[in-house]
Design brief:
- It is a single chain.
- By secondary structure, the protein is α+β, with helices and mostly antiparallel strands.
- The chain has two domains: 2-76, OB fold (Dihydrolipoamide Acetyltransferase, E2P) (Beta Barrel); 81-148 and 186-238, no CATH class.
- 36% of the residues lie in helices and 22% in strands.
- The chain has eight helices and eight strands, in the order E-E-E-E-E-H-H-H-H-E-E-H-E-H-H-H.
- The strands form two sheets. Strands 3-2-1-4-5 form a five-stranded antiparallel β-sheet. Strands 7-6-8 form a three-stranded antiparallel β-sheet.
- Helix 3 runs antiparallel to helix 4 and helix 4 runs parallel beside helix 7 (198-217).
- It is elongated and about 65 Å long.
Length: 239
């Protein structure tokens, strides 16, 4: 069996004396692993790094086998990412989110979004908001999407400023007023795709973090990724 695809390297694991198992998020084949023979050589070590885009050829006798990768680096980002603590923590968090997806399950839109985020991980202004939206997209893909389009209580589509922590549905200012202390803030940029201010992004990460921890990580017996905490701490320092 053989296929060709584009991918984003999100992880590497040593295998034997000279090889690595490369983990990539691919356009058409989802999160996919493969063996790169000689991947620990002086030639390949600087190239096979998380954050780099690659053209992949995967070959195996049977579909369920690990298979072998032939790799060509098409867009090296790793050096720039490693020069920025914010970018490096952001990349590690992006990889942790992608690992929540089932292996070999295609998610082409998430792949394209991950590429755009990877290109700007060191941008402390625009990219954090994109990462919040990516967390929302991950929740949706995993079956825990939030309904932010209309008020859970009244059906109103205007003045939505809260989210119910129980249902994950938006709540309007009027309907939520008696219970506002028990509701989560809904940042404006998640409703209208507008520009996000620093406080909005903080509230956005608080919102997505609540549902990621409750619905995704905790049921799997996992803790929230340390990379997420490190990314938010670095972001706070820069601001």
């Amino acid at each position: 069996m053989e296929w060709r695809d584009d991918g984003l390297i999100i992880g590497l694991k040593k295998h034997g004396e000279t090889s690595v198992i490369l983990e990539a998020m691919t356009h058409a084949h989802g999160r996919h692993l493969g063996l790169v023979r000689g991947g620990r050589s002086k030639r390949w070590q600087p190239l096979l790094q998380p954050g780099n885009s690659v053209a992949l050829v995967w070959r195996a006798r049977l579909d369920e086998h690990l298979g072998l990768y032939a790799v060509e680096v098409t867009k090296p980002r790793a050096a720039n990412l490693m020069a920025s603590a914010l970018a490096l923590h952001g990349l590690n968090h992006l990889a942790a989110l992608l690992r929540l997806l089932a292996e070999r399950d295609p998610h082409s839109e998430l792949y394209e979004t991950a590429l755009r985020i990877a290109d700007h991980l060191g941008d402390a202004r625009a990219n954090p908001a994109a990462l919040v939206r990516f967390e929302l997209a991950i929740l949706t893909e995993l079956g825990f999407g939030l309904d932010l389009g209309r008020c859970a209580a009244s059906g109103a589509v205007e003045d939505l400023i809260y989210v119910s922590p129980k249902s994950g549905r938006a709540v309007s200012r009027l309907s939520g007023a008696p219970y506002h202390e028990r509701l989560l803030p809904l940042p404006g940029f998640l409703r209208d795709d507008g520009e996000a201010q620093a406080n909005d992004v903080t509230e956005g990460f608080r919102l997505t973090g609540y549902f990621l921890e409750r619905d995704v990580f905790a049921p799997r017996g996992l803790k929230m990724p340390e990379a997420r905490h490190a990314y938010l701490a670095e972001l706070a320092k820069l601001r």
